[in-house]
Structures
1.
Amino acid sequence: MDVGEAITDAYTSPPLSQPIDIAVLVSGSGTNLQALIDHQGSYRVATVISDRVDAPALDRARAVGAETVVVPWNGDRDDFTHRICDALERCGAAWVVLAGFMRILGPEAIRRFPDRIVNIHPSLLPAFPGSNAVAQALAHGVKQTGVTVHFVDEQVDHGPIIAQVPVEVLPDDDEDALHARIRRQEHVIYPAVVDALARGEIEVSGRRVEWRKR
């Protein structure tokens, strides 16, 4: 059993009788979205919002009957954030889950959804924040990288850390090979974290996050 599966097993509980609706923000193919869809239990992927009308992730959402919304990027981060927040409020989701969403939301999102937005990042934060995290890890010659799920704050890849899973960097790794192993861990740990959030089993105070299985 790998680390991601061990964490999942440690915190898995029977699903809630009434799942909590979540909204997922996407920009690309939607592999993490698919993992979230495949593991619905205490949460339900009710709405999927994208900044791209042609994002393949939207097809994954439509295939399971989730509402889809497109909020096009217009080059103005504040206006874009405002429109995203309005769309989120209209759908009424309890949690906002970023899954391959390639836009940085402005401070308004944090004000309107405090401690309700989570993100997944392909490194062991605080190492290698921002874009190209896998390439950064390889360039630095690290022996281990991984996956981090964290709350979103006003800085990039900076919010309180909820869960981390290490991934070994092998001597012959290239970016594609390493990223593929990281994604496998992402698809295990992200649904487990979102399920725990839906159950109210994750508490955050400042930068300290605790899991309390109910």
Note: The domain at 3-198 is CATH 3.40.50.170 (Rossmann fold).
2.
Amino acid sequence: MTTPPPASPPSTATEVFDAILRNSSDLYRGHREILRESYIPPRLPHREHQIQQVAEVLGPALRGDVPSNLLIYGKIGTGKTAVVAQVRQDLLRRSDGRGEVAFITVNCGNLDTAYGLLQTIGNTFANAEGDRIPTGWSLDRVQTAMRQLMDVRGGIQILVLDEIDRLVARSGDGVLYTLSQLNTELETARLVIVGISNDLKFTNNLDARVRSRLNEEKILFPPYDATQLQDILRERAKEAFRDGVVDAGVIERCAAYAALENGDARRALALLRLAAEMAERDRAKRITSDHVVKAKSRLELDIIVECCRTLPPHCKVLLYAILQSFERRRGGVLTGEVYESYTKLSQRLGLPPLHARSISNYLSELENLGLIRATIVSRGRGGRTREIVVDVPLGETMPALEEDPLLAPLARPRPLNQTLLTNFDNPNRTGPSY
């Protein structure tokens, strides 16, 4: 009996959507959100001690006492935000909705200014549209309106500043000083600050007055080891997937990859979730270790693309010039050739080219980010120069850069079926597509 040929892949987005709707997933038992970092599980393995510490600091709010300010330190993916979220849920539940305690959670990674932070805090307590603080007021007026709204609400208000170090890096410590001395100006309300930071040393450069007020309590979250990550993934997998669909070794491989990167639980969960997505695309009945390998490649590409998108404009043009020259030569390129290519691309885009010294600084930045490698080579009487080698996959990074509005005029025609994920969906792919 002859084996029927495999079905040809869908050629349009509509066909892809139709196929997804026709074929329900055989992998999932629960909601896919279970595998995302935003999901707060009923139990956080290996963070029981930290939960107890945070609860002991914030618990006095239940009897009307003002807790100490709290700073929580730890590397990315060590459960800081999840622990605070779980303590928040339990504390609000025990307060029986009487309103003596309120939480305001702000991700400082999404705010650039002190103005935006104070406006966001104030508007959290606005009961009607007319009470909201509009954009355009002076900073002093925004601060006054925020205090008034907080006093109308009253009670103990716990302000959680996630990624507080990024706020300080962008706008200085002035806004933290304003918040830390706010209780001397409030009448019926009291403010407690809970700062969450990935930078263990970010308070070193704070004003002494701010540091003394914020450093009332500190909690350090250690990174997870591989065994702890396995426990976390097994609990999530048991809740998310049907019995028997996760092959032996999948959990261990996801945990091992994440343990190598500072014990990041977010990365471990992302690997497991992407491995399941890869299995679904392959229409597989089980999640295998091969799917984890493909997920790791996909995740690394996402990090590279995101890194490229956040580069300064001239640095993006420089990286594109390097990739273009490297693709053309299929080998290392010299700094002189790179600068010449960068200058031509800048002029084509209407940007005034930077001086060679500035470009040299950008080259060092790209090397520090791991996107390129530069080595010193001797050219005899011609002196010494740097030879640049690309450390990212050209076939994925160049199209990603061309999606940027700045570099869109440089985009080259590509086949309609070519996507950023082509190579990563190919099980025979063994390395970067140089």
Note: Residues 48-221 form a domain with the Rossmann fold fold (CATH 3.40.50.300).
3.
Amino acid sequence: MLLVNLSKENKLRYASVLAKEVDCTYSHTVKIINMLKDSGLVEFTKKGRLKTIALTNTGKELASNLSKAMSLFQKVDR
């Protein structure tokens, strides 16, 4: 869900905001984001004390495919 939420709006996001959006604790969200970074799906930009998260091109592609798959499952579930 983090990848899909990052792809919804084309802007830089903060871990605390993402944690609230996916209803997850901040520490768990940061752990997942670090795993996504290690996989090359997200990148960090640091300005002063603020650290923002953005999808890489590979992350955007994967998020798009996940979003499509989720839509298909929702249609089948109805």
Note: The CA atoms of residues 14 and 52 lie 5 Å apart.
4.
Amino acid sequence: MNTELRILTKRNSLLFISFFSLYLGYMLGNRLLVCFGFGLLFLLFFTWHAAHNFFHEFKASRNHYPRTFEEAELRIAIHLVPGTKIPIYMLEVVDLFPPGDAWHVRALVPVRLDMSAGVELEYNAICTRRRGIYVLGPLEIIAADPLGIHVCRTQIPEITDLLVCPKAPLLSLYEVLGDGTLSHVGVETLLRPGHSEEFTSLREYHEGDNPRRIHWPSSARHERFFIKEFREEITTEVSLVLDMHRLALSGLGDVTSIEYIIKAAAAVAQIAIDKGHLVQLFALSDKMQHVPTDGGNRHLITILDRLALLRPRGDEHFEDGLEEVMPYLKSGSTAILVAAASNIHTGKISPIIRQLMNRRIKTMIILVDDRSFIKFWKDQEEHMKRATPLAELKDVLSREGCSLFLVAKGDDVALKLQMPV
């Protein structure tokens, strides 16, 4: 059926009629038929020449924002400028958009396209694919002569990059994180009564207070003990530490444990910066990746850009990379560990948590239950058999004093991050 359709084109039909007219005209000696046949041949040649000249020095460019988010709609503009003075009617443009469901996006230029102005097309496409960097293009241009006899195609190597960032689930509240000191960017320290050398005030002695801090002149004057209070420097810094090892990956396609880890990290980073904290990011894989401490919306974009490109690598356990992170964590700050549950071992993680607690680092752990996803690697079956059972892991981490959150396949990440275990 397709062969028949390709044969019965307008061009082939006109060729048949022209040659038949020439043959019949010569056989019958009919000059009118001969002229008619030559006239059709001239028309075919003229339209063929016009169609093939359409793409002489034809130019096309694509404009769009360099980044967008998962499930977001992106507007793309294509500017077309022909290199010929011959008017082009009903031009068709085919663009490749890999982040969407329909890779081929077709657009029709309904107006005449000429050398004087060119034309700009716009289309909207939804990024249904997961985070990452995508290459858009090339462009395919399809044009026909005014009679639609000859159809010509050309490909223009117009290539642009698009970074699709992870969509951060919106957290309406995250009380365990607390507030920063400035709502617009966060600051390095927050001063409150503590143990530094800067005196702030006096208060009455309570049982358990350090006797060395008794202010004797005031105690003698009021005939009861008073304690000196000093300022303590508490950082408003939040450190996100992600498990990006190979064995942390379970699941297929867009539904994987790594994607849940990324979404949880994006959500926490967004609300931490909204609350006025400084945020830094660590991704532990075959080598540590670090986004230094900063605050504000620009820094949030930097973090999301890095999250968009993270890929699981390396066969180490999550705790193996934490020792490298420890020097970057400030006393009094908050550390948020986001990891696959089967890649954490209680015997290794407990001493690290105690070390963090001793440095007054508030520790929160977001566990992604990778057992609820399809196993991806051949050695994962044995790896999960050796791993600490989830119930035991939750008990150990809770006893260590961590704020614990659990996310499994199919869960609403935003909802689970507001429900401590």
Note: The chain is about 30% helix and 30% strand.
